[in-house]
Design brief:
This protein is an alpha/beta fold. It has 11 helices and 13 strands. The longest helix has 19 residues, at about 150-170.
Length: about 350
């Protein structure tokens, strides 16, 4: 992502909720990553709050994005030399995909950094058939703690192992952010963007399940804002960070999309039994949605009350929808990575309606 594109995406933040607390003092913040999806929003939020930001990465992804801040070059895999002997008030780890990387950085930074914030995932939980789980719920334990293949099967367990390495080095000076599905402008997965784009195109839209089925997600800018707040106010511990405040349903969401993009699309609700028999996959073919009676139903019903009490806020869903669509339309016809193709959706609807 080019810096010009990023600045255009974040312009909408001017209408986001403003937190009025005066910064106690400017902090020195290190961000491991900084130029992917989440990191740039954290950088901009921190700079806007008067903090001094340093980013550490390989210099391969949008190296021109932040010319005004210090960039340290290295590699999480085997080159942390640029971090040695440096001091920061806090580090935010967005790029800790492999536990060994997190272990190495946490051990290296322990003597000279006051606070370690690790971006984990709600995929860490062992039993997603349970709804309304808080941060005390059981987490996954990998059979092989040496695994470093970041596959869907290993993802949650690798996040847990990484959390453990952070706690081993930083103890009570650590914050573990178990984020839900992170969405918004710039999302490289299109797991949210599919719906604004599809509804904007109009016609008959295959809507999964029923309008009452629950969903959860969080705008990347709200996640970034709360991450910086957690640094400023030293919110140590583990937090589920997804949203919104109330239980959002698929019906409410799609009606918001229709209204926001001014679409006359017709929502055709198709039940899970039909979708399953026709090999339609929740979450990938139909993003955001999981069947409410499936073993994954708890994935979209996590308890976020702890983070809300610690200042987590959410912008209107309409803003996320509008900005995601505007971002996608700026890409000149980029093919969506997720969701049903037009041909497959048409075929399914014809079959469903006889």
């Amino acid at each position: 992502m080019k810096r010009r594109e990023f600045l255009a995406l974040t312009a909408a933040c001017l209408t986001a909720p403003v937190w009025a607390n005066v910064v106690r003092r400017p902090l020195k913040i290190l961000i491991l990553g900084g130029t992917g999806f989440i990191g740039p929003h954290q950088v901009e939020t921190a700079l806007g709050r008067g903090h001094e930001v340093t980013i550490f990465n390989r210099g391969k992804s949008a190296p021109e994005m932040f010319p005004q801040i210090e960039t340290l070059l290295g590699d999480r895999k085997d080159d942390l030399k640029a971090l040695k002997g440096r001091k920061w008030d806090a580090v935010i780890d967005n790029s800790g995909f492999v536990p060994r990387w997190v272990k190495d950085s946490a051990e290296l930074l322990k003597p000279n950094v006051g606070h370690y914030v690790y971006i984990s995932s709600i995929s860490a939980y062992a039993d997603n058939s349970k709804v309304d789980q808080d941060e005390s719920a059981e987490v996954i334990q990998l059979e092989n703690p040496e695994v470093d293949a970041n596959t869907p099967k290993n993802y949650g367990g690798m996040k847990v192992l990484s959390e453990n390495y952070v706690k081993a080095s930083f103890g009570e000076r650590s914050t573990l952010i178990r984020s839900g599905l992170v969405v918004g402008p710039g999302d490289p997965t299109d797991r949210f963007t599919y719906w604004p784009v599809r509804v904007f195109r109009g016609g008959r839209v295959l809507a999964p399940g029923t309008p009452k089925d629950p969903i959860q997600c969080i705008d990347v800018r709200d996640l970034a804002r709360w991450t910086i707040l957690a640094v400023e106010q030293q919110h140590y511990g583990t937090y589920n960070v997804t949203g919104p405040y109330h239980q959002l349903t698929m019906g409410q969401f799609l009606e918001t999309v229709k209204e926001t993009v001014n679409s006359n699309a017709e929502l055709v609700w198709v039940d899970w039994d039909f979708l399953s028999k026709n090999e339609v996959s929740p979450w990938t073919d139909l993003p955001l949605w999981v069947p409410p009676d499936s073993e994954m139903r708890g994935f979209v019903r996590k308890d976020v009350s702890k983070a809300i009490k610690a200042g987590l806020t959410f912008r209107p869903m309409s803003e996320t929808v509008q900005d995601s669509l505007a971002w996608y339309r700026s890409l000149d016809g980029k093919e969506l990575k997720t969701g049903l193709s037009p041909q497959r959706e048409k075929s399914l609807l014809q079959k469903w309606q006889g």
